[in-house]
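Let us begin with a simple case.
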Amino acid sequence: MSVYLITGATGYIGSMLARHILCSEEGAEIVALVRDPEKAEALLGKNRVKLLKADLCDRALLNRVDVQCDYVFHCASVTKSAEMIAHPVEVTESIVNATQNVLELARRCSAKSIVYFSSMEVYGNIDCLDGHRVQEDELGEIGLLNARSCYPLGKRMAENICYSYFKEYGVPVKIARLAQTFGAGILPTDNRVFAQFAKAVRNGTDIVLHTRGESIGNYCSIRDVIAGVFTILGSGVNGEAYNVVNERNTMQIRQMAELVAKKIAKGKIGVVYDIPESNAYGYAADTGLRMSGEKLKKLGWKPKDDLIKMYLEMLC
């Protein structure tokens, strides 16, 4: 019987990962470290789930947590760009300090394998307009004097902390650099770009872009991401990072908007532009990033879902 410790179990990826474990592994148990046990219970129920109320930034509190686990998925993270703009200090703390505290807990538990959920934003500004696919050992620039940079720089630091715990203590941690992830089960409160597009389809209103939509997006379905992180958990090399991306789902934001308007909404809605003078919505800077999924595919992972299927499942 395996015991999984999951942080961020009330978020989209964490909750879907927990549900997958409960449905697919008979006898498996989950320990979820959460801020809001009532919200977690509503999402996951009580059966085979142990809910522990915890602030991941509180090292003293986590040191008192008495739990044993075989595997750790550290999913907890801020995902709202507006939050990154408004509270960069707290966002940095929630990424960096929380990651070290979770790794310390995993070390104390002698976990067999750990996956840290990072982000494609760690790559920074990389131009792949020539079709180049960025592999895990390539990094671009990230502006230091920019509040929004708290997220990608925090993720970079957290990845280094993961590697340091592996190097110094032998903690068996791997890093999953996730593309934008969606599909079935998106939470109603999600307000990221893809969710806004889906809401426009539901409401029969035009898709409104607050940028020129030139930034390239990398996407992967929740089903493929779960399969990917389990591949990393079981077959990944300790101390290394893996892109989790379906390369077929790479396109500019405006291209995705047009696809949704034409293919998903059947041409009943359009795409309009309302671009403010300032970055009031906290969007990340335009990027030409195209992620390569080859390293993970060499471990046997094969992404299957295209964007149309992802949107149809999200809208069900």
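The second case is a distinct protein. As before, the sequence precedes its structure tokens.
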Amino acid sequence: MGKNSIEVIINKKVYQLSGSESEEYLQKLARYIDRKMQELSQTAGYDKMSLEYQNLMLSLNLADEYFKCREELEQMDKEATERERQLFETKHEMIDATIQCETLQKMVSEYKEEIIKLQKELLKLEQRATDE
């Protein structure tokens, strides 16, 4: 992708931005920084701070957001890992239950066959008893 160059407005000043990202993305970044600067300008005493201190405040606010987002992402990753572990365990429990169910069904089938054999034998014995 080629290099994009656009004009953006940040804190009521026009700047030339260049980057390999799309123009839309660069505008989005500029709007975000502009909004953050506007938010900070609402802080009591902000306009009396030196430009260096204002920039420091902006940097600290951005770093704060970054670390909070990163922490949230790490928490979401942990939760996703835990859900995956639980899903894995549940799948194995289902497999075990399926195997146990199939085993029990086989035993029921074998018992039914045994019952049928025993009933046939009982009928034969009753038939002999009545014949004698």
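The chain has a mean pLDDT of 94. The chain has two helices and two strands.
Keep these points in mind for the review questions at the end of the chapter.
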